[in-house]
Amino acid sequence: MPPNAIDALLPQTQCTRCGYNGCRPYAEALASGEAALNRCPPGGAAVIEQLAALLGRPVLPLDPACGVEQPWPLAWIDPEQCIGCARCLPPCPVDAIVGAQRQLHTVIDDWCTGCELCIAACPVDCIHLLARPAALPTPAPEDSRLRYDQHQRRWQHQHAQRAALLAERKRAASATDDPGVS
Fold first, then answer.
1. Is residue 62 scored above 90 in pLDDT?
2. How many domains does the chain have?
3. What predicted TM-score, i.e. pTM, was given to this entire model?
4. CATH number (domain holding residue 120)
5. Cα gap 82→85, rounded to integer Å
6. What is the DSSP string of 12-81?
7. Residue 141, in any domain of the structure
């Protein structure tokens, strides 16, 4: 089974509760037979049933080691506590948190998948999970996948730029330290 078909069934929260670094790696592990199909709490029983049908495997109950099935929460940043450290920005897999260094951050409610990855990154515990209002639907998986892919490309580009800059500085420093260079 191609991973794309499996990935299309997953909710694209990129929460990592399944034990994999996002929905695509979990889909790849499912496709290769390396993962159980009951490891997606955001998808819950509905996704487990769809995966079982697609993969021709028996339906299993959600693995409690991965979490419990529940309505998708919504992250909220307390403006009275946020110090603008920007540590919540990198872990948000869909760029639902906006802000800049030393500025108040906020969550784009329509984009938040409730993955909870921002919570551990916050040094002042100003990020809280709230019940998603009934009027606010969960983000469409296709939109979340697109935002996740864009997030990944941007961070990879930034890391590559940083590595190139550091390598250039190291070359420049070693050239000035070499007595044979004039």
1. yes
2. 2
3. 0.85
4. 3.30.70.20
5. 8
6. -----TTSSSSHHHHHHHHHTT-S-S---TTTHHHHHHHHHHHHT----PPPGGG------EEEEE-TTT
7. yes
